[in-house]
Amino acid sequence: MPSIPASPQPRPNVLAIPAYVAGKPPVARPGLTSYKLSSNENPYPPLPGVLDAAREAAAEMNRYPDMGSSALYAALADTMGVPTEDVAAATGSVALIYQLVNAFCEPGDEVVYAWRSFEAYPIAVTAGGARSVQVPVTADGRHDLDAMAAAVTDRTKVVIVCTPNNPTGPAVTQSELDAFIAKVPSHVVVVVDEAYLEFVRMDDAIDGIATYRRHGNVVLTRTFSKAYGLAGFRVGYAVAPAPLAAALRAVSLPFGVSHVAQAAAIASLAAQAELFVRVEDLVARRADLVARLREVGWDLPDAQGNFVWFPLGDRALDFAAACGELGISVRPFAGDGVRVSIGEAEAFDRVVEVAARFAPAAQ
């Protein structure tokens, strides 16, 4: 038999892309209601008017979406008080990270970010042929911004500040961000990833819009997946000076944000009064869970997103398995810790039960 020719080989960096590990659904347990607390999803149903808008848009599925997202850009610009030229939409804020690397990095250029942080960063950087420069977070899960500034070299094209940091939880203050930006050369793009900004409750919180207005190299990335509860529709957006926003739009996938997603996002912006009520409830649930965890012996990193972080180290997988036995799925990061989303309050009794067994004082 003739030999089969060798298959074409992808670029070496493609073979080096780490796999994204999504939060798993819970395994059903007899007699228990299962809860998924592994993906930082919003437990609420769609905001008022959103489902109707999505259904109406779905009736036109035979038509392409507006590639320019013009109605969505107008709604975002009006909501934030920015020019439409300064907005770029994509299939979730994660797509914007891919586009940033594609738009601004040559092969071998560097992207600096904290670690552990959002799992998609090393994937996007490697896929784009750039090089990750990971700067360890502090013992309490915070960005070491001085070390990140020191890590910037002549090859650095992008730095990413994830605030609040996923999965560890702490957020950067405005004073810290201002000092950091002052140390970064103006030709380097500073990405402020604000996927969880609606949940921040702290003194000197970042004003992302004011920050981007003061700098020609700052890009804000945001999403409708978390607070707005549109995780299944995949729509995020960036706010940046017009030349940077134009670069993001130039490398975007044509027709990437579906017609249904655009309609749902616009309707969600129109329902912000109800959104803020729901966010406040989730923040209150977060505070209650953190207080209960402290009572059983945990000193957790400051939780400013819709999740809490357990720095469990080598016990992370065991903790996740124990939660799974009680019908709760959480997100373990082997060797580092476990992230637990703020979801249904009914699940928290079981989370606290497991946490009490794994508390440092109980070891």
TrEMBL record:
Enzyme Commission numbers on file: 2.6.1.57
Keyword RNA-binding: no
Catalytic activity: an aromatic L-alpha-amino acid + 2-oxoglutarate = an aromatic oxo-acid + L-glutamate
Keyword Metal-binding: no
Annotated Aminotransferase class I/classII large domain residues: 36-353
PROSITE patterns in the cross-refs: AA_TRANSFER_CLASS_2
The protein's required cofactors: pyridoxal 5'-phosphate
Keywords: Aminotransferase, Pyridoxal phosphate, Transferase
Example of a GO MF term: histidinol-phosphate transaminase activity
Residues found modified as N6-(pyridoxal phosphate)lysine: 226
Similarity-based family: Belongs to the class-II pyridoxal-phosphate-dependent aminotransferase family.
Job of this protein: Aminotransferase that catalyzes the conversion of aromatic amino acids and 2-oxoglutarate into corresponding aromatic oxo acids and L-glutamate.
Record text on subunit structure and interactions: Homodimer.
Protein's name in the database: Aromatic amino acid aminotransferase
Taxonomic classification: Bacteria, Bacillati, Actinomycetota, Actinomycetes, Propionibacteriales
